[in-house]
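Protein Entry — a single chain follows
Next Lines — sequence and tokenised fold
***
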Amino acid sequence: MARKLLRPLPSLVFIGMPSAGKTTIGGLCAEMLGLPFVDFDTLIEKRTGKSPSEIFDTRGEKYFRQLEAELAIEFSHRGGLVISPGGGIVERAANMEHLRDGNIVIRLERDIALADRRDRPLLRKKGALEALLKRRGPLYAQYADLTLDNNGSPAECAERAAEVYRNREI
């Protein structure tokens, strides 16, 4: 059954594994739709002066997840945005309750063999990406309104996402 969205201008939220393309597809999609793009990792770095990796190393994952949670609250109800939270945003149900409320949530899937593991704090150990997928995969499926394959052209994937947003019915 399709879920009709009541807010006149919802936001488009991308979720998925690290390196699934949330930032790339989100940025392209924002350009196509003429909407502001909010990338949580970039915003956290701008506000704290530290990259996510530096925050993980100096303050820990718990602190980083709290910063993400604050952004989920701050941006979830504004509408008319393209939002790219970090891959771990799904691990706190409250984050997704905020981000799903009146918005369109698209899960991006990409072959994990293509993942860029550089500067990714949770992917430093062998087998870490596979373990994350096992833990988070069901959560991505649970919270996504739609899943898009991002193993091909980023522009084509962004166009499919933009079309979903333009139709505003999922």
Remarks:
- The longest strand covers residues 104-109.
- The radius of gyration is 15 Å.
- The domain at 12-167 is CATH 3.40.50.300 (Rossmann fold).
- The mean pLDDT is 88.
